[in-house]
Write a structure and sequence with these properties.
Elements: H1 10-28, E1 32-37, E2 46-53, E3 59-68, E4 71-79, E5 85-94, E6 99-106, E7 112-120, H2 133-136, H3 141-146
Antiparallel strand pairs: 1-2, 2-3, 3-4, 4-5, 5-6, 6-7
Length: about 160
């Protein structure tokens, strides 16, 4: 795959269809969400977790939001109906300007197919260019959503 042709690849198109289906389900209400909110207590600690489940109870999206004193980070993970992580969209915004939006596509076996990054309003090297899987990949989003946080919970909605 290349920057010029990745969007025409059938595997990428299939993953984009999953993302679109989840986003449509969220907008229509056919995919329900639950949210947990935490106080800020440490740099890049998670202050918000959102999980989205379809009518059958399958997790289709899991989002974490956090940051530091000078930046905000959102990581959205999209899952196929069978439960595999298929895409991660990470957005890093620096206060005062600069944003990185990175889309990572995974095949059905969990291997990276493609990483597409866009940096806006900042030097290319001002934001991370490639996040490691230990930040991106959550194989059991239900467990991650329910897990305790080191930060105090503000508004539980389990």
């Amino acid at each position: 795959l290349t920057k010029e042709n990745f969007q025409q690849d059938d595997r990428i198109k299939a993953i984009e269809a999953i993302i679109q289906g989840v986003n449509t389900g969220l907008a229509s209400g056919s995919i329900a969400t639950a949210k947990r909110v935490f106080e800020y207590c440490q740099p890049y600690g998670i202050v918000e977790r959102v999980i989205a489940r379809d009518a059958s109870g399958r997790v289709r999206m899991y989002e974490e939001r956090g940051g530091s004193d000078n930046s905000d980070r959102t990581i959205k993970r999209y899952y196929a109906e069978a439960g595999q992580l298929r895409s991660v969209v990470i957005t890093d915004k620096a206060r005062g300007g600069g944003e990185l939006v990175q889309r990572v596509y995974f095949d059905e076996a969990g291997k990276r197919l493609w990483v597409d990054s866009k940096v806006i309003g900042a030097p290319e090297n001002a934001v991370p260019s490639n996040y490691p899987d230990e930040i991106l990949v959550i194989g059991n989003p239900g467990k991650a959503f329910s897990a305790p946080s080191p930060c105090k919970e503000i508004a539980p909605s389990l």
